[in-house]
Each structure stands twice: as structure tokens, then as C-alpha cells.
Amino acid sequence: MKKLMLALASIALMATAAMADAPAAVAPTEVKMKIKAKEKEGTVKAKVAISHNMLTYDQAKKKGKDANFITHITATVGDKVVYDASTSQFLSKNPLIKFSFAGKKGDELKITYTQLKGEVFFATKKIK
Amino acid sequence: MKKTMLSLVAVAAMTVSLSATDYRAEKPDTWTAKTVETSIKALYGEVTPAEGEIKLKAPKVASNGGAIPVSIKTDIPAKSVAIFQDANPEAAVAVFTVPEGANADFSMKIKMKKSGTITAIVEGKDGKIYSTKLSLEVALGGCEG
């Protein structure tokens, strides 16, 4: 009986933590992103399309929803940051970003983004 | 026990942003500023930008204000690059940190409510601020759903 109560209590606690406004209290979630990363003579050109409705405050008001847009995008290769952008509600819906950095074929590029409420999402792709 | 677990997850999730700069957290006034001038001031302080070799590109007439392709490229050794516009309720669009080994070469699609001017700022490693502007027309305003 006690074990059941404890189990229920811990589920409730984790659920509340997930719903609370605490930034980054939820573990990063892997999502699908269209990532193209190609290396040529030591420079990697990356193109990333993120699916996100990027609801601005104005748009959200009209739809009666909460504003929700990407606030930060980071790209890393291993533990090296190769792209880092702090962003506003003014990136377009399903933002398409391009950037370039020194890198090599075979390395893995990881794209991580944070949205307004603090949830973090990521995707990875091997550099070709 | 649960609290330690939750805080551990929080720390793990935050390490991604620790090696980079979260300008939204560090310079919050940049993002609420309504004019380009006040936004730049909030981000970089009282600066007099110099004209620099910055290639800022965007279509002369954007057919869809909800998705305007903008690209900015510069060979000036840069610490950060920032994009602003004067067509939306707030001026700041994005601030990029330029990490070691990365190029100051960015493309993105942005929203503009109406025709206006995009300002790009490059914070040089030499401590100087460089800027360039580009005006464009927007055929269909971009903040509508």
C-alpha cells in the first residue's frame, strides 16, 4: 500500500514539474529536423529546417493560444559550439537557417533549440 | 531525492547553453525595445557604429512578409552579429554569437509586418561595432496568422 502511494506521489511530482514554469526542468526531447551538412575543403555548410509554428504574441492573442516561439538555437559538434543564436518571435514559421563552420566529414552535428516556455528539443545529423 | 533528480536534469539541460551566450537572458531589454536604436543600445551600450564590409542581403520586394530570406556575411573577425528591423512591434530579430572556427555567415527567414529597414550589426573582435542597413518593401504583411 505504502509503495503504491509513494509511486503515485512521485508520478504526481514529476507531472507537476513538467507542467511548472521552471525553465529547462524537462529533459531535451529528440525531434525530426531537416538537416543538411556538407563539408568541402574543411568548411561545413549547414542548412536546417525546423518545424515550428513560431506563434508571435499578436498571433497567439488572435488565436486565443499561448505565444510560443523559438528563443535559442545552438549547433554543436561534440562539445564544441559552432552556431549560437538568441532569437525573437520574428523568425518565420518553420524557420530555415543556414550557417557555416570549420569541420569535417563524419562528425555529428547536433542542433538544439529552446522555446519560450523553456522546453528543449534537438536533432542530429552526420556531416557528409 | 526527487528534488535532487529534478535539479540534476535541469543542470544537464542547461549545459548546452552554458558554452554559448543566451542574449535573451543576459540582455533582456534588447528584446522588448521598440526601436532599433534602443535595442542596439540595450545590447551593445552607447556605440557609434562604423560602416563596415558587411554583405546584408534580402529581396528588394518580399512577396511574403511572413518568410523573408535574409543573409548576412562578413569577413570582419566578429564576436557577435545582430539583426534588427523597424517594421515590427519590437526591433530585435536575432543575435548570433560567432564561436571560434565558425564563420560570420548566416541566413535565416524572418517576419516583417510591413515594408521597412533591416539593420545588421557586427561586434568586431577589435571591440568596434560595425553596421549596415537595407531597406525593403513587403508586399503582404507578415505577422498575420
Describe this structure in words.
The complex is a heterodimer of chains A (128) and B (145). In chain A, a hairpin with a 4-residue loop joins strand 7 (108-115) and strand 8 (120-126). The relative contact order of chain A is 0.24. Chain A has 128 residues and is an alpha+beta fold. Mean pLDDT of chain A is 88; it is low at 17-24. Chain A has a single domain (23-126), classed as Immunoglobulins (Immunoglobulin-like), CATH 2.60.40. Chain A has helices at residues 2-19, 57-63; strands at 29-30, 34-40, 43-49, 70-77, 80-87, 96-102, 108-115, 120-126. Chain A has two helices and eight strands; from the N terminus they run αβββαβββββ. Chain B has 145 residues and is an alpha+beta fold. Chain B has a single domain (21-138), classed as Immunoglobulin-like (Sandwich), CATH 2.60.40.2470. In chain B, 24% of the residues lie in helices and 37% in strands. The model of chain B is unreliable at 10-19 (pLDDT under 50). Classes of the chains: A alpha+beta (128), B alpha+beta (145).
Which features does this protein show?
A: 128 residues; alpha+beta; 3-stranded antiparallel β-sheet; 42% strand; B: 145 residues; Immunoglobulin-like; 6-stranded mixed β-sheet; 4 helices; 24% helix; globular
Flag low-confidence runs of chain A: 17-24
Q: What name does CATH use for the topology of chain B?
A: Immunoglobulin-like
Provide the β-strand percentage band of chain B: 35-45%
How do the strands line up in the largest sheet of chain A? Answer: 1-8-7-4-5
Q: What is CATH's topology name of chain A? A: Immunoglobulin-like
The chain-level mean pLDDT of chain A equals 88
Radius of gyration of chain B: 17 Å
- Could you name the CATH homologous superfamily of chain A? Immunoglobulins
CATH architecture of chain B: Sandwich
Helix content class of chain B: 10-25%
Strand content of chain A: 35-45%
Chain pair sharing the greatest interface: A-B, 50 and 47 residues
Number of contiguous helices of chain B: 4
**Terminal Cα span of chain B:** 45 Å
Mean pLDDT across all amino acids of chain B: 88
Strand count, sense and barrel status of the largest sheet of chain A are: 5 strands, mixed
Low-pLDDT segments of chain B: 10-19
Number of strands of chain A: 8
